[in-house]
Amino acid sequence: MPEKVLVTREIPDAGLRLLEGFDVTVLSEAPPERDVLLEAVRGAAGILPTVTERIDAEVMDAAGEGLKVVTNMAVGYDNIDVEAATERGVVVTNTPEVLNETTADTAFMLLLAAARRLGEAERLLRSGGWDAWGPKQLIGPDVWGKRLGIIGFGRIGQALARRATGFSMEPVYHDQYRNEDAERELGAQYLELDELLEGCDFVSIHTPLTPETTHLIGTEELRKMKQEAVLVNTSRGPVVDEAALADALAERRIFAAGLDVYEEEPKVHPKLLELENVVLAPHIGSASIETRDKMAALAAENLAAVLRGEQPKTPING
Ligand code: DGY
Asked: Sheet holding 23-28: strands in order across?
């Protein structure tokens, strides 16, 4: 009997193809309701979830003792209770590396769009409100030549630094760990968080979500930023206190923000929705055709490997 595999959402064929030979259920196009997930997971040996599903002890127990592996189709895995998985002998994997460049592209896109007011400009044009070129119309700070502070200097943060140097920007970074090789390679100076916030024109966040990084950027940190600064977040919503950010933007304490992630997705703080000086994207950091194929393939490869008794490529535990 082929082992049962639950894929929680419709994923690219590049992934599904690699699961041939297993008894695969693809649950739904939209995020499944919790009770639907708990029912569908019964008897699964492998689960391939996305960031929209919380895979915790309850889900693992609903799957039963035959559950061997959970392969998240994402690099971030704050939606998985890794400790509960480890206690149950369940392997957890993610999809690192394959989305680095695409996510860095998204961060740079938001940085440019927020500085140069692209969202606001497009809204003006589409609403029929654009009547003439204006010498002071929709002006924002230059990006090129400015100082970019990168919070979280892993692979995505480093990929962003590479883009920044192409725009003659000066990359600096803050991270829990110093990376002197990357500093040399990218010409990026290490700064303490406060120094980075006080001294940068652009700040982009690339940390994983952990108890330590939850609300890493709140009222106090926003007050330290320059009034003409732009904040970008493509990591996880709860790293930024959304209400505090909405206040800072409304009071023009910082110039603008570009966001791809939110504290309670798919909800967005209502105040942010009202503001002109924030560009809002619906968690599309890794949403290129090539990258989503690679993420789906890596998650499926990991799942198939564990069910065949082999080592997965990118394990988180064990
Ligand atoms: C990830 O991989 O963690 C993203 O947020 C989903 O693309």
From this structure: 23-28, 4-9, 46-48, 69-71, 91-93
Residue type, 289: I
The Å distance, Cα 175 to ligand 1 centre, comes to 20
CATH 3.40.50.720 domain extents, the chain: 4-96+289-307, 100-280
CA distances from 267 to 52, 81, 114, 262, 283 (A): 13, 23, 20, 7, 11
> Closest ligand 1 atom, CA of 236?
5
User: Does CATH place domain 100-280 in 3.40.50.720?
Assistant: yes
The set of residues, in sequence order, having a beta carbon less than 8 Å from that of 300 and lying 6+ positions away, is 11, 15, 16, 17, 18, 19, 48, 71
What's the gap in Å between 292 CA and the centre of ligand 1?
10
Amino acid found at 242? E
128 class by beta-carbon count within 10 Å (0-12 exposed, 13-18 middle, 19+ buried): exposed
pTM: 0.97
**174-213 tens-digit pLDDT:** 999 999 999 999 999 999 999 999 999 999 999 999 999 9
CATH 3.40.50.720 fits 4-96+289-307, yes or no: yes
